[in-house]
Please model this.
Amino acid sequence: MTKSICLTFMQKRSIISKEASIIGTITSMILVLNGPNLNLLGTREPDRYGLESLEQTVQKLTQLAEKQGFELKSFQSNAEHELVEKIQKAVVDKVEFILLNPAAFTHSSVALRDALLAVAVPFIEIHLSNIYAREEFRHKSYFSDIAAGVVAGFGTLGYELALRAAITKLQG
Ligand code: DQA
Model:
């Protein structure tokens, strides 16, 4: 009679991580993608966007992801085509989840939306500010209806909440 072996998700990940470290790769990758002007976090409209720099936020996220056994990569660009190219490469780069703050492209970018639909990598849309409590042109998002979820209005804490949600989803 065959004996079935049941492993918890963490046990499976630990085995995968050990195997991955032997062959030099880590399997589960989360990509944090930030759009235009978010490189200025910390100095850009601090009353609205806070005092934390993007580097500080990414550092905290990286530590949190690593503690849970995930690898986190971050990319920021002010250029739409660079963000599109990063999304197109997501599958080749073995990205399993994207945390995306499209910034101003939220309200304009069909190109980014199409890239996300093309790769079909799940993503969470993040906004530091509550876009629905701001100017009317910010109420329209090209991403919310295709996102796994949306976090808005909690400053940089929103990135952490989104990361925890992504990890929970990846753990199935
Ligand atoms: C933002 C909101 C956008 O409307 C704005 O253009 C940004 C930042 C936010 O994080 O609150 O650049 O995405």
In short: The chain has a mean pLDDT of 90. The longest strand covers residues 95-101. The pocket of DQA is lined by residues 37, 101, 103-104, 106, 127-129, 131, 138 (CB under 6 Å).
